[in-house]
From TrEMBL:
PANTHER family to which the protein is assigned, alphabetical: ARGINASE
Residues that span the membrane, as ranges: none
InterPro entries: Arginase, Ureohydrolase, Ureohydrolase_dom_sf, Ureohydrolase_Mn_BS
Catalytically driven reaction(s): L-arginine + H2O = urea + L-ornithine
Residues that hold Mn(2+) 1 according to the record: 99, 122, 223, 225
EC id: 3.5.3.1
PROSITE patterns noted in UniProt: ARGINASE_1 (PS01053), ARGINASE_2 (PS51409)
Pathway(s) per entry: Nitrogen metabolism; urea cycle; L-ornithine and urea from L-arginine: step 1/1
Cofactor, how bound (note): Binds 2 manganese ions per subunit.
Protein name: Arginase
Family annotation (Pfam families): Arginase
């Protein structure tokens, strides 16, 4: 892994309805993310937080896409900053913020890869399009957008699309009907909680890395709601029966050992719903493992 890390906070809460997730980046900074990375020997360049558009009331819901133009404007700013990070040859690490931020992150990263792989570590598929979304919340749509599906204003943010065969979902346990249809249609690789239980995380990661062996870099998009709400209560859309801290920690260690991860984002931390910043602390511990922290 590169020894230079670029950090960007995305205090975004426009992609869903519950306020507070805009404080996620502060909570992870407060939990010591920069200090942990520096201790591991990384040169950390902090880009601060991206400017996020205000919600406007008129825009509340438009074609089942809440806060559409605010999300578009913010995504473009995220894209520009991540482009700078890549130009600077640093590892882009983003802290969120709701998952709609991935539209901007991936817009920048896919452009710089021939064949980017993506691991979507999440209770959800985030594969809705406006006609299938039960909520109109854009945080339920970013993976679809990056496949080129959804409203033009969103799909146009990135020039290059992800390939369905380059995506692996891990931890899925709440998929909407339209998402299930899309997963089957496109043949996307999914390790639901059932597969994680059956195979164990070590095998899941081994098969994930095998599935992505042909890619030229892997982006990890880790939604903290992929973990169980008992350990990560500070998320807006908790789902029972999630991945444990131990499993997730192992997953991060195996990714670190593979040396294949080239960018990452840790999203959906909502300190207002949290208990004593527990979720941000889990996020920072996972980040440390992803960057090679070891006991001995
Ligand atoms: N990034 C997330 N937490 N996404 C939750 C999405 C929930 C639901 N599938 C929806 O479309 O609204
Ligand atoms: Mn989720
Ligand atoms: Mn998500």
């Amino acid at each position: 892994m590169m020894k230079k890390v670029s950090l960007l906070g995305v205090p975004m809460d426009l992609g869903q309805a519950r306020r507070g997730v805009d404080m996620g980046p502060s909570a992870m900074r407060y939990a010591g993310v920069i200090e942990r990375l520096e201790k591991l020997g990384y040169d950390v360049r902090d880009y601060g937080n991206v400017v996020v558009d205000e919600r406007s009331i008129e825009e509340a819901s438009h074609e089942n896409l809440k806060n559409l133009s605010a999300v578009v404007n913010t995504s473009i700013r995220i894209r520009e900053t991540v482009q700078q990070m890549i130009d600077d040859e640093a590892f882009p690490l983003l802290l969120g913020g709701d998952h709609s931020m991935s539209i901007g992150t991936l817009a920048a990263i896919t452009a710089r890869h021939e064949n980017l792989g993506v691991i979507w570590y999440d209770a959800h598929g985030d594969l809705n399009i406006p006609s299938t979304s039960p909520t109109g919340n854009i945080h339920g749509m970013p993976l679809a957008v990056n496949l080129g599906l959804g409203h033009e204003l969103l799909t146009n943010i990135g020039a290059k699309k992800l390939k369905p065969e380059n995506i692996v979902l891990i931890g899925s346990r709440d998929l909407d009907e339209g998402e299930r249809v899309l997963i089957k249609e496109l043949g996307i690789k999914v390790f639901t909680m059932h597969e994680v239980d059956m195979l164990g995380m070590a095998t899941v990661m081994e098969q994930t890395l095998q599935h992505l062996a042909h890619t030229d870099g892997i982006h990890l998009s880790l939604d903290l709601d992929g973990l169980d709400p008992m350990e990560c209560p500070g998320v807006g859309t908790p789902v029972l029966g999630g991945l444990t801290y131990r499993e997730s920690h192992l997953a991060m260690e195996l990714l670190a050992a593979s040396g294949r991860v080239t960018s990452a984002e840790f999203v959906e931390v909502n300190p207002i719903l949290d208990e004593r910043n527990k979720t941000a602390q889990v996020a920072v511990a996972l980040i440390a493992s992803l960057f090679g922290d070891q006991l001995l």
